Protein backbone atom coordinates (compact mmCIF):
# COMPACT_ATOMS: atom_id res chain seq x y z
CA UNK A 1 0.00 0.00 0.00
CA UNK A 2 1.38 3.41 -0.95
CA UNK A 3 1.98 6.11 1.62
CA UNK A 4 -0.79 8.25 0.06
CA UNK A 5 -3.41 5.53 0.52
CA UNK A 6 -2.68 4.73 4.15
CA UNK A 7 -5.44 5.64 6.55
CA UNK A 8 -4.52 8.56 8.76
CA UNK A 9 -4.30 8.06 12.50
CA UNK A 10 -6.17 10.19 15.02
CA UNK A 11 -3.15 12.45 15.66
CA UNK A 12 -2.89 13.28 11.96
CA UNK A 13 -6.62 14.07 11.94
CA UNK A 14 -6.07 16.49 14.85
CA UNK A 15 -3.21 18.21 13.01
CA UNK A 16 -5.23 18.40 9.78
CA UNK A 17 -8.13 19.98 11.67
CA UNK A 18 -5.79 22.55 13.27
CA UNK A 19 -4.42 23.41 9.83
CA UNK A 20 -7.97 23.77 8.51
CA UNK A 21 -8.83 26.09 11.39
CA UNK A 22 -5.99 28.49 10.66
CA UNK A 23 -2.75 27.04 12.01
CA UNK A 24 -0.08 27.90 9.47
CA UNK A 25 1.76 24.93 7.97
CA UNK A 26 5.11 26.63 8.54
CA UNK A 27 4.35 26.90 12.27
CA UNK A 28 4.15 23.13 12.74
CA UNK A 29 6.87 21.84 15.05
CA UNK A 30 7.22 18.59 16.97
CA UNK A 31 9.65 17.28 19.56
CA UNK A 32 10.83 14.07 21.18
CA UNK A 33 11.55 14.77 24.88
CA UNK A 34 13.41 11.89 26.61
CA UNK A 35 14.71 12.07 30.16
CA UNK A 36 18.45 11.20 30.18
CA UNK A 37 18.16 8.83 33.13
CA UNK A 38 18.55 5.56 31.24
CA UNK A 39 18.70 4.04 27.77
CA UNK A 40 15.78 4.23 25.36
CA UNK A 41 13.65 1.08 25.07
CA UNK A 42 11.15 -0.50 22.69
CA UNK A 43 8.35 1.71 24.04
CA UNK A 44 10.31 4.80 23.05
CA UNK A 45 10.59 3.46 19.50
CA UNK A 46 6.88 4.12 19.03
CA UNK A 47 7.14 7.68 20.39
CA UNK A 48 10.21 8.35 18.22
CA UNK A 49 8.50 7.03 15.11
CA UNK A 50 5.34 9.04 15.82
CA UNK A 51 7.09 12.38 16.39
CA UNK A 52 9.75 12.10 13.71
CA UNK A 53 7.27 10.43 11.37
CA UNK A 54 4.95 13.43 11.68
CA UNK A 55 7.89 15.67 10.92
CA UNK A 56 8.45 13.77 7.67
CA UNK A 57 4.73 13.62 6.82
CA UNK A 58 4.20 17.36 7.29
CA UNK A 59 7.70 18.50 6.32
CA UNK A 60 8.02 20.07 9.77
CA UNK A 61 11.04 20.34 12.09
CA UNK A 62 11.43 18.03 15.09
CA UNK A 63 13.45 18.98 18.16
CA UNK A 64 15.31 16.53 20.33
CA UNK A 65 14.90 17.91 23.83
CA UNK A 66 16.36 16.33 26.93
CA UNK A 67 14.14 16.90 29.96
CA UNK A 68 17.13 16.97 32.31
CA UNK A 69 15.60 18.18 35.58
CA UNK A 70 16.87 15.51 37.99
CA UNK A 71 20.67 15.57 38.43
CA UNK A 72 20.47 12.66 40.89
CA UNK A 73 19.67 10.22 38.08
CA UNK A 74 20.84 11.84 34.85
CA UNK A 75 24.20 11.33 33.18
CA UNK A 76 25.97 12.36 29.98
CA UNK A 77 26.32 8.69 28.97
CA UNK A 78 22.53 8.50 28.72
CA UNK A 79 22.42 11.65 26.55
CA UNK A 80 25.02 10.14 24.21
CA UNK A 81 23.22 6.78 24.05
CA UNK A 82 19.86 8.42 23.27
CA UNK A 83 21.34 10.47 20.42
CA UNK A 84 23.07 7.40 19.04
CA UNK A 85 19.86 5.34 19.17
CA UNK A 86 17.73 7.94 17.37
CA UNK A 87 20.39 8.43 14.71
CA UNK A 88 20.66 4.64 14.26
CA UNK A 89 16.88 4.41 13.79
CA UNK A 90 17.32 6.74 10.84
CA UNK A 91 15.88 10.01 12.16
CA UNK A 92 17.40 13.50 12.23
CA UNK A 93 16.43 16.30 14.58
CA UNK A 94 16.56 19.98 13.69
CA UNK A 95 17.67 21.32 17.07
CA UNK A 96 19.19 19.67 20.10
CA UNK A 97 17.69 21.29 23.18
CA UNK A 98 17.79 20.77 26.95
CA UNK A 99 15.32 21.75 29.65
CA UNK A 100 18.39 22.95 31.55
CA UNK A 101 18.80 25.61 28.85
CA UNK A 102 15.64 27.17 30.28
CA UNK A 103 16.38 27.00 34.02
CA UNK A 104 16.72 30.77 34.36
CA UNK A 105 13.54 31.48 32.39
CA UNK A 106 11.63 28.87 34.41
CA UNK A 107 12.89 30.43 37.63
CA UNK A 108 11.83 33.91 36.48
CA UNK A 109 8.37 32.66 35.58
CA UNK A 110 8.11 30.93 38.97
CA UNK A 111 8.88 34.24 40.67
CA UNK A 112 6.09 35.83 38.61
CA UNK A 113 3.67 33.16 39.83
CA UNK A 114 4.67 33.90 43.43
CA UNK A 115 4.12 37.63 42.82
CA UNK A 116 0.66 36.87 41.40
CA UNK A 117 -0.23 34.84 44.47
CA UNK A 118 -0.25 31.62 42.41
CA UNK A 119 2.67 29.86 44.12
CA UNK A 120 4.10 29.60 47.63
CA UNK A 121 6.91 28.06 49.63
CA UNK A 122 5.82 25.08 51.69
CA UNK A 123 8.08 24.11 54.58
CA UNK A 124 6.39 20.83 55.46
CA UNK A 125 7.93 17.39 55.01
CA UNK A 126 7.14 15.47 51.85
CA UNK A 127 5.19 12.97 53.99
CA UNK A 128 2.95 15.70 55.41
CA UNK A 129 2.36 17.19 51.97
CA UNK A 130 1.40 13.78 50.58
CA UNK A 131 -0.95 13.11 53.51
CA UNK A 132 -2.71 16.47 53.11
CA UNK A 133 -3.42 15.85 49.43
CA UNK A 134 -6.33 13.62 50.39
CA UNK A 135 -7.65 10.78 48.22
CA UNK A 136 -9.50 10.59 44.89
CA UNK A 137 -12.77 10.66 46.83
CA UNK A 138 -11.73 13.03 49.62
CA UNK A 139 -10.59 16.64 49.17
CA UNK A 140 -7.14 17.68 50.29
CA UNK A 141 -6.27 20.01 53.17
CA UNK A 142 -4.63 23.37 52.64
CA UNK A 143 -1.04 23.66 53.72
CA UNK A 144 -0.50 25.88 56.80
CA UNK A 145 1.96 27.81 54.59
CA UNK A 146 -0.47 28.33 51.70
CA UNK A 147 -1.10 31.97 52.63
CA UNK A 148 2.47 32.86 53.40
CA UNK A 149 3.18 36.53 52.56
CA UNK A 150 4.42 37.13 49.03
CA UNK A 151 7.64 38.87 50.07
CA UNK A 152 8.51 35.98 52.40
CA UNK A 153 7.89 33.48 49.58
CA UNK A 154 10.14 35.46 47.24
CA UNK A 155 12.87 35.71 49.87
CA UNK A 156 12.79 32.01 50.69
CA UNK A 157 12.75 31.05 47.02
CA UNK A 158 15.83 33.21 46.41
CA UNK A 159 17.56 31.64 49.41
CA UNK A 160 16.73 28.17 48.12
CA UNK A 161 18.30 29.11 44.79
CA UNK A 162 21.38 30.46 46.59
CA UNK A 163 21.89 27.17 48.42
CA UNK A 164 21.05 28.49 51.91
CA UNK A 165 18.66 25.65 52.76
CA UNK A 166 19.15 21.91 52.99
CA UNK A 167 17.32 19.33 50.91
CA UNK A 168 13.80 18.62 52.09
CA UNK A 169 13.33 21.81 54.09
CA UNK A 170 11.27 23.73 51.51
CA UNK A 171 9.51 23.25 48.19
CA UNK A 172 7.74 25.66 45.87
CA UNK A 173 4.11 24.68 45.22
CA UNK A 174 1.62 26.05 42.74
CA UNK A 175 -1.54 27.37 44.37
CA UNK A 176 -4.23 25.65 42.33
CA UNK A 177 -7.11 23.80 44.04
CA UNK A 178 -6.80 21.39 46.97
CA UNK A 179 -10.34 20.14 46.36
CA UNK A 180 -9.92 19.37 42.64
CA UNK A 181 -11.05 15.90 41.57
CA UNK A 182 -7.78 15.76 39.62
CA UNK A 183 -5.25 15.17 42.38
CA UNK A 184 -2.44 16.52 40.19
CA UNK A 185 -4.02 19.97 40.62
CA UNK A 186 -3.87 19.84 44.40
CA UNK A 187 -1.08 22.38 44.76
CA UNK A 188 1.62 20.45 42.89
CA UNK A 189 5.29 20.87 43.74
CA UNK A 190 7.12 23.03 41.19
CA UNK A 191 10.65 23.11 42.68
CA UNK A 192 12.63 21.08 45.19
CA UNK A 193 16.07 21.60 46.71
CA UNK A 194 18.78 19.26 45.37
CA UNK A 195 22.43 19.83 46.22
CA UNK A 196 23.57 17.65 43.32
CA UNK A 197 25.91 18.27 40.41
CA UNK A 198 24.06 18.55 37.11
CA UNK A 199 25.68 16.94 34.06
CA UNK A 200 25.42 20.23 32.12
CA UNK A 201 25.02 23.10 34.59
CA UNK A 202 27.40 21.74 37.22
CA UNK A 203 26.73 23.29 40.65
CA UNK A 204 25.11 26.48 39.36
CA UNK A 205 21.69 25.46 40.65
CA UNK A 206 20.59 24.15 44.04
CA UNK A 207 16.91 23.97 43.10
CA UNK A 208 15.48 22.00 40.20
CA UNK A 209 12.08 22.28 38.51
CA UNK A 210 9.66 19.36 38.51
CA UNK A 211 8.72 17.66 35.27
CA UNK A 212 5.16 19.01 35.11
CA UNK A 213 6.35 22.60 35.49
CA UNK A 214 9.20 22.18 33.03
CA UNK A 215 7.57 20.20 30.28
CA UNK A 216 4.85 22.49 28.99
CA UNK A 217 6.94 25.63 29.44
CA UNK A 218 9.78 24.06 27.43
CA UNK A 219 7.30 23.24 24.67
CA UNK A 220 6.15 26.85 24.81
CA UNK A 221 9.68 28.26 24.63
CA UNK A 222 10.41 26.08 21.60
CA UNK A 223 7.01 26.91 20.07
CA UNK A 224 6.05 23.27 19.72
CA UNK A 225 2.60 23.03 18.15
CA UNK A 226 1.65 19.52 19.26
CA UNK A 227 3.02 18.10 22.49
CA UNK A 228 2.52 14.35 22.06
CA UNK A 229 2.89 12.04 25.02
CA UNK A 230 1.73 8.63 26.19
CA UNK A 231 -1.67 8.02 27.72
CA UNK A 232 -0.57 8.00 31.36
CA UNK A 233 0.04 11.75 31.02
CA UNK A 234 -3.57 12.51 30.14
CA UNK A 235 -4.43 13.52 33.76
CA UNK A 236 -1.45 15.91 33.55
CA UNK A 237 -3.03 17.85 30.69
CA UNK A 238 -5.11 20.04 33.03
CA UNK A 239 -1.95 21.03 34.89
CA UNK A 240 -0.07 21.50 31.61
CA UNK A 241 -2.74 24.00 30.58
CA UNK A 242 -2.94 25.68 34.00
CA UNK A 243 0.76 26.49 33.94
CA UNK A 244 0.55 27.79 30.37
CA UNK A 245 -2.44 29.97 31.31
CA UNK A 246 -0.22 31.85 33.78
CA UNK A 247 2.74 32.57 31.51
CA UNK A 248 1.31 32.57 27.97
CA UNK A 249 1.78 35.59 25.77
CA UNK A 250 -1.21 35.76 23.38
CA UNK A 251 1.13 36.90 20.59
CA UNK A 252 2.93 33.55 20.72
CA UNK A 253 1.75 30.10 19.71
CA UNK A 254 0.37 27.94 22.51
CA UNK A 255 1.22 24.19 22.45
CA UNK A 256 -1.46 21.53 22.72
CA UNK A 257 -0.89 18.31 24.65
CA UNK A 258 -2.39 15.20 23.08
CA UNK A 259 -1.99 11.60 24.21
CA UNK A 260 -1.58 8.24 22.53
CA UNK A 261 -1.42 4.73 23.98
CA UNK A 262 2.08 3.68 24.94
CA UNK A 263 3.60 0.54 23.48
CA UNK A 264 3.32 -2.38 25.90
CA UNK A 265 5.12 -5.55 24.82
CA UNK A 266 4.44 -9.02 26.22
CA UNK A 267 7.17 -10.81 28.21
CA UNK A 268 8.81 -7.43 28.77
CA UNK A 269 9.24 -4.66 31.33
CA UNK A 270 10.09 -1.15 30.16
CA UNK A 271 10.25 0.82 33.39
CA UNK A 272 13.73 2.34 33.57
CA UNK A 273 13.72 1.73 37.31
CA UNK A 274 13.06 -1.96 36.75
CA UNK A 275 15.58 -2.19 33.93
CA UNK A 276 18.15 -0.61 36.24
CA UNK A 277 17.32 -3.19 38.87
CA UNK A 278 18.02 -6.01 36.40
CA UNK A 279 21.48 -4.51 35.81
CA UNK A 280 22.19 -3.94 39.50
CA UNK A 281 21.18 -7.54 40.31
CA UNK A 282 23.49 -8.85 37.55
CA UNK A 283 20.56 -10.55 35.82
CA UNK A 284 21.84 -8.87 32.66
CA UNK A 285 25.26 -7.47 31.80
CA UNK A 286 24.18 -3.88 31.11
CA UNK A 287 21.84 -1.62 29.20
CA UNK A 288 22.92 -3.21 25.91
CA UNK A 289 22.51 -6.82 26.99
CA UNK A 290 20.78 -8.54 24.03
CA UNK A 291 17.95 -9.68 26.33
CA UNK A 292 17.10 -6.11 27.30
CA UNK A 293 14.24 -4.30 25.52
CA UNK A 294 16.46 -1.25 25.08
CA UNK A 295 17.25 -0.07 21.56
CA UNK A 296 20.92 -0.72 22.32
CA UNK A 297 20.13 -4.26 23.46
CA UNK A 298 17.94 -4.94 20.42
CA UNK A 299 20.65 -3.56 18.13
CA UNK A 300 23.29 -5.80 19.73
CA UNK A 301 20.96 -8.77 19.36
CA UNK A 302 20.68 -8.06 15.65
CA UNK A 303 17.47 -6.09 15.22
CA UNK A 304 17.62 -3.60 12.37
CA UNK A 305 16.29 -0.02 12.22
CA UNK A 306 13.90 -1.08 9.47
CA UNK A 307 12.46 -3.91 11.55
CA UNK A 308 11.81 -1.63 14.53
CA UNK A 309 10.20 1.06 12.38
CA UNK A 310 8.03 -1.59 10.71
CA UNK A 311 7.08 -2.94 14.13
CA UNK A 312 6.04 0.50 15.35
CA UNK A 313 3.94 0.98 12.23
CA UNK A 314 2.32 -2.45 12.62
CA UNK A 315 1.55 -1.74 16.30
CA UNK A 316 -0.29 1.40 15.18
CA UNK A 317 -1.28 4.65 16.89
CA UNK A 318 -4.29 4.35 19.17
CA UNK A 319 -6.04 5.93 22.16
CA UNK A 320 -6.53 2.68 24.04
CA UNK A 321 -3.95 0.75 26.05
CA UNK A 322 -3.15 -2.73 24.77
CA UNK A 323 -0.35 -5.27 24.88
CA UNK A 324 1.45 -6.17 21.67
CA UNK A 325 2.59 -9.78 21.49
CA UNK A 326 6.37 -10.15 21.30
CA UNK A 327 5.88 -12.48 18.33
CA UNK A 328 4.99 -9.45 16.18
CA UNK A 329 8.38 -7.90 16.90
CA UNK A 330 10.08 -11.19 16.03
CA UNK A 331 8.03 -11.46 12.84
CA UNK A 332 9.23 -8.00 11.76
CA UNK A 333 12.91 -8.87 12.15
CA UNK A 334 12.47 -12.19 10.33
CA UNK A 335 10.76 -10.42 7.45
CA UNK A 336 13.57 -7.88 7.19
CA UNK A 337 16.52 -10.24 7.57
CA UNK A 338 15.02 -12.81 5.22
CA UNK A 339 15.49 -10.28 2.42
CA UNK A 340 19.00 -9.15 3.24
CA UNK A 341 20.90 -11.66 5.42
CA UNK A 342 23.40 -13.90 3.56
CA UNK A 343 22.91 -17.62 4.07
CA UNK A 344 25.88 -19.46 5.55
CA UNK A 345 26.45 -22.79 7.25
CA UNK A 346 27.29 -23.15 10.92
CA UNK A 347 27.05 -26.02 13.39
CA UNK A 348 26.23 -25.12 16.98
CA UNK A 349 26.12 -28.56 18.64
CA UNK A 350 28.56 -30.59 16.55
CA UNK A 351 29.11 -34.28 16.02
CA UNK A 352 31.60 -35.65 13.50
CA UNK A 353 30.34 -37.31 10.34
CA UNK A 354 32.79 -39.40 8.27
CA UNK A 355 32.03 -40.28 4.64
CA UNK A 356 33.75 -43.65 4.49
CA UNK A 357 33.72 -43.98 0.69
CA UNK A 358 34.97 -40.44 0.06
CA UNK A 359 38.61 -40.29 -1.14
CA UNK A 360 41.26 -39.83 1.53
CA UNK A 361 43.02 -36.44 1.63
CA UNK A 362 40.68 -35.11 -1.04
CA UNK A 363 38.68 -31.91 -0.89
CA UNK A 364 36.60 -29.97 -3.35
CA UNK A 365 35.00 -26.57 -3.64
CA UNK A 366 31.23 -26.42 -3.87
CA UNK A 367 29.14 -23.43 -4.90
CA UNK A 368 26.48 -22.12 -2.52
CA UNK A 369 23.82 -19.48 -3.13
CA UNK A 370 24.13 -16.48 -0.80
CA UNK A 371 20.47 -15.51 -0.62
CA UNK A 372 17.63 -17.02 -2.68
CA UNK A 373 15.55 -13.91 -1.86
CA UNK A 374 18.15 -11.67 -3.48
CA UNK A 375 19.60 -12.92 -6.78
CA UNK A 376 22.06 -10.01 -6.81
CA UNK A 377 23.70 -11.45 -3.67
CA UNK A 378 25.54 -13.98 -5.85
CA UNK A 379 27.22 -17.12 -4.59
CA UNK A 380 30.26 -18.25 -2.63
CA UNK A 381 32.66 -21.16 -2.47
CA UNK A 382 32.38 -23.71 0.34
CA UNK A 383 35.04 -26.41 0.91
CA UNK A 384 33.95 -30.04 1.25
CA UNK A 385 35.95 -33.00 2.59
CA UNK A 386 35.72 -36.51 4.01
CA UNK A 387 35.06 -35.39 7.60
CA UNK A 388 32.24 -32.99 8.42
CA UNK A 389 30.49 -31.55 11.42
CA UNK A 390 26.69 -31.82 11.53
CA UNK A 391 24.25 -30.95 14.32
CA UNK A 392 24.00 -33.68 16.95
CA UNK A 393 20.21 -33.28 16.88
CA UNK A 394 20.20 -34.16 13.17
CA UNK A 395 21.05 -37.82 13.81
CA UNK A 396 19.32 -40.72 15.54
CA UNK A 397 20.40 -44.35 15.46
CA UNK A 398 16.80 -45.32 14.95
CA UNK A 399 13.79 -43.12 14.42
CA UNK A 400 10.17 -43.21 13.34
CA UNK A 401 8.95 -42.19 9.90
CA UNK A 402 8.38 -38.59 11.01
CA UNK A 403 12.11 -38.05 11.57
CA UNK A 404 13.39 -36.72 8.25
CA UNK A 405 16.99 -36.19 9.24
CA UNK A 406 19.85 -38.67 9.27
CA UNK A 407 19.47 -42.19 10.69
CA UNK A 408 20.96 -45.55 9.88
CA UNK A 409 20.01 -47.06 6.51
CA UNK A 410 18.26 -43.87 5.38
CA UNK A 411 19.29 -41.09 3.04
CA UNK A 412 19.41 -37.31 3.39
CA UNK A 413 21.02 -34.58 1.34
CA UNK A 414 23.86 -32.42 2.56
CA UNK A 415 23.04 -28.81 1.67
CA UNK A 416 24.70 -27.77 -1.62
CA UNK A 417 26.47 -31.16 -1.72
CA UNK A 418 25.67 -34.87 -1.92
CA UNK A 419 23.11 -37.40 -0.81
CA UNK A 420 24.45 -39.54 2.04
CA UNK A 421 23.26 -42.70 3.77
CA UNK A 422 23.81 -43.57 7.44
CA UNK A 423 25.84 -46.77 7.83
CA UNK A 424 27.17 -47.07 11.40
CA UNK A 425 28.26 -45.22 14.52
CA UNK A 426 31.29 -45.10 16.79
CA UNK A 427 30.64 -44.91 20.55
CA UNK A 428 32.79 -44.20 23.59
CA UNK A 429 33.00 -46.39 26.70
CA UNK A 430 29.83 -44.82 28.10
CA UNK A 431 27.80 -45.53 25.01
CA UNK A 432 27.78 -41.96 23.66
CA UNK A 433 28.00 -41.57 19.90
CA UNK A 434 31.26 -39.84 18.92
CA UNK A 435 31.20 -40.38 15.15
CA UNK A 436 28.68 -41.18 12.46
CA UNK A 437 29.84 -43.13 9.44
CA UNK A 438 28.03 -42.82 6.15
CA UNK A 439 28.44 -43.33 2.43
CA UNK A 440 27.75 -40.82 -0.32
CA UNK A 441 26.39 -41.04 -3.83
CA UNK A 442 29.12 -39.51 -5.97
CA UNK A 443 26.67 -38.72 -8.78
CA UNK A 444 24.22 -36.84 -6.55
CA UNK A 445 26.18 -33.59 -6.27
CA UNK A 446 23.82 -30.59 -6.15
CA UNK A 447 23.65 -28.67 -9.40
CA UNK A 448 25.74 -31.21 -11.36
CA UNK A 449 22.95 -31.81 -13.85
CA UNK A 450 23.06 -35.60 -13.47
CA UNK A 451 19.99 -37.72 -12.95
CA UNK A 452 21.22 -38.60 -9.47
CA UNK A 453 21.53 -34.91 -8.57
CA UNK A 454 17.81 -34.52 -9.23
CA UNK A 455 16.94 -37.40 -6.90
CA UNK A 456 14.60 -36.32 -4.09
CA UNK A 457 15.12 -37.21 -0.45
CA UNK A 458 13.05 -35.89 2.43
CA UNK A 459 15.76 -34.38 4.61
CA UNK A 460 18.47 -31.76 4.04
CA UNK A 461 21.23 -31.10 6.59
CA UNK A 462 23.67 -28.23 6.95
CA UNK A 463 27.30 -28.99 7.68
CA UNK A 464 30.84 -27.63 7.78
CA UNK A 465 34.06 -29.31 6.78
CA UNK A 466 36.07 -30.28 9.87
CA UNK A 467 39.36 -29.46 8.15
CA UNK A 468 38.20 -25.96 7.20
CA UNK A 469 35.81 -25.06 10.03
CA UNK A 470 36.36 -21.88 12.05
CA UNK A 471 35.66 -21.96 15.78
CA UNK A 472 33.10 -19.43 17.04
CA UNK A 473 31.32 -18.61 20.26
CA UNK A 474 27.57 -18.90 19.72
CA UNK A 475 25.44 -16.96 22.19
CA UNK A 476 21.76 -17.87 22.29
CA UNK A 477 19.06 -15.73 23.89
CA UNK A 478 15.50 -16.41 24.93
CA UNK A 479 12.86 -14.15 26.43
CA UNK A 480 14.00 -12.70 29.74
CA UNK A 481 10.67 -13.39 31.45
CA UNK A 482 8.48 -16.49 31.55
CA UNK A 483 5.26 -14.56 32.27
CA UNK A 484 3.58 -12.56 29.49
CA UNK A 485 2.94 -9.68 31.91
CA UNK A 486 5.82 -9.87 34.40
CA UNK A 487 4.99 -6.67 36.27
CA UNK A 488 1.19 -6.72 36.06
CA UNK A 489 0.64 -8.28 39.50
CA UNK A 490 1.67 -5.70 42.10
CA UNK A 491 1.67 -8.39 44.79
CA UNK A 492 4.41 -10.37 42.99
CA UNK A 493 7.93 -9.14 42.35
CA UNK A 494 8.55 -9.03 38.60
CA UNK A 495 11.99 -10.56 39.28
CA UNK A 496 10.21 -13.78 40.29
CA UNK A 497 9.33 -14.29 36.61
CA UNK A 498 12.92 -14.26 35.34
CA UNK A 499 13.63 -17.00 32.81
CA UNK A 500 16.67 -18.90 34.18
CA UNK A 501 17.43 -20.21 30.67
CA UNK A 502 17.37 -16.86 28.88
CA UNK A 503 21.06 -17.10 27.95
CA UNK A 504 23.41 -19.87 26.89
CA UNK A 505 26.72 -20.04 25.07
CA UNK A 506 28.42 -22.83 23.12
CA UNK A 507 31.47 -23.34 20.98
CA UNK A 508 30.31 -23.88 17.43
CA UNK A 509 31.88 -24.12 14.01
CA UNK A 510 31.26 -21.93 10.97
CA UNK A 511 32.30 -22.13 7.34
CA UNK A 512 35.63 -20.43 6.51
CA UNK A 513 34.04 -17.56 4.55
CA UNK A 514 33.17 -16.00 7.93
CA UNK A 515 36.73 -15.98 9.26
CA UNK A 516 37.37 -12.23 8.90
CA UNK A 517 33.85 -11.01 9.65
CA UNK A 518 33.67 -7.70 11.50
CA UNK A 519 31.22 -6.91 14.34
CA UNK A 520 27.64 -6.03 13.39
CA UNK A 521 27.22 -8.27 10.32
CA UNK A 522 23.99 -10.26 9.89
CA UNK A 523 23.74 -13.85 8.68
CA UNK A 524 21.19 -16.58 8.42
CA UNK A 525 22.72 -19.77 9.77
CA UNK A 526 20.86 -22.20 7.58
CA UNK A 527 18.18 -24.14 9.44
CA UNK A 528 19.21 -22.49 12.74
CA UNK A 529 18.09 -18.85 12.61
CA UNK A 530 19.41 -15.33 12.20
CA UNK A 531 22.66 -14.27 13.87
CA UNK A 532 24.86 -11.18 14.11
CA UNK A 533 28.51 -10.79 15.03
CA UNK A 534 28.77 -9.29 18.51
CA UNK A 535 30.93 -6.23 19.36
CA UNK A 536 33.13 -8.69 21.30
CA UNK A 537 34.26 -10.13 17.95
CA UNK A 538 37.96 -9.61 17.32
CA UNK A 539 40.47 -11.09 14.86
CA UNK A 540 40.68 -14.80 15.65
CA UNK A 541 37.69 -14.64 18.04
CA UNK A 542 34.30 -14.80 16.35
CA UNK A 543 31.28 -14.21 18.59
CA UNK A 544 27.75 -14.56 17.23
CA UNK A 545 24.49 -13.52 18.91
CA UNK A 546 21.33 -15.31 17.91
CA UNK A 547 18.77 -12.72 16.86
CA UNK A 548 15.74 -14.92 16.27
CA UNK A 549 14.86 -18.39 15.02
CA UNK A 550 13.55 -19.07 11.55
CA UNK A 551 10.05 -19.56 12.95
CA UNK A 552 8.11 -18.85 16.12
CA UNK A 553 9.05 -21.81 18.32
CA UNK A 554 7.95 -19.96 21.48
CA UNK A 555 4.29 -20.22 20.48
CA UNK A 556 4.61 -24.01 20.10
CA UNK A 557 6.48 -24.23 23.40
CA UNK A 558 3.64 -22.51 25.26
CA UNK A 559 0.67 -24.22 23.60
Q: Could you explain the architecture of this structure?
A:
The structure is a single chain. This protein has 559 residues and is α/β, with parallel strands linked by helices. Among the domains are: 115-208, Alpha-Beta Complex (Glutamyl-tRNA Synthetase, domain 3); 350-462, Beta Barrel (Ribosomal Protein L25, Chain P), CATH 2.40.240.10. Helix content is 25%, strand content 23%. The strands form eight sheets. It has a seven-stranded mixed β-sheet with strand order 12-27-28-29-25-26-13, covered by helices on one side. A hairpin with a 3-residue loop joins β27 (522-525) and β28 (529-533). α2 packs across α11 (305-315) and α11 (305-315) packs across α12 (326-340). The longest helix has 16 residues, at 42-57.
Brief rundown of the structure:
This protein has about 550 residues and is an alpha/beta fold. Among the domains are: about 115-210, Glutamyl-tRNA Synthetase, domain 3; about 350-460, Beta Barrel (Ribosomal Protein L25, Chain P).
